[in-house]
Prior knowledge:
This protein has eight helices and seven strands.
Amino acid sequence: MRARGINYDTGTFPGNSLTRKTFDSQAVRREMAVIASDLHCDAVRISGREPERLTVAARHAADAGLEVWFSPFPVDLDPVRALALFAECAERAEAVRQAGADVVFVTGCEVSAFCHGFLPGDTYLDRLAAMVTADLDWWMSLGPVLDHVNAFLAEAAACAKSKASWQSAGRKRMATVATVQEAEPPGRHVHPSTNRRKMAGSTRLRRRLSRIFHRETTESGLGTR
């Protein structure tokens, strides 16, 4: 395992369902210090819906010596609004990286279930309920969803990369994707078109942290300090 990490929620889900009602910068600073020293982590995935909160937490994480996984969580946003969120957050993540932090920008957060426009359902709760109660025919009907999700993730990755100055000093990372060959019903496995044994060990961590419906977004190091 390349890194030991934990997820840090800055506030997720829309409206009154916001998971973190109070967000205090100094409390975040103390919590990042605890993550680094008491929990012995060297990485933290910072998740949430608000770019400013993500940025504050990312800076405190960097000050604590943690690798930052900058992870906007676009719940119930349609693809256009989700891309706008990713674009803003990618610029903010790049600013944190330019200040000297090690940063991985995450463009995957189970988008097919949590974003609007991929699976049937007006809200994420509707979509999750449909997935829980669905029969085999429902799952087998989702073939076109794969292409839609894959196209969106490719666009999201390209958008994020366009905001980064990869020629700058520091650790350079680029998001890559592993496309699956075909959809399978529950209980069956799908396999990427590339040989996973050739992927770096860090890919395994990425899969655990950010698994998306039939699609995985991975990252690979492109340089050294």
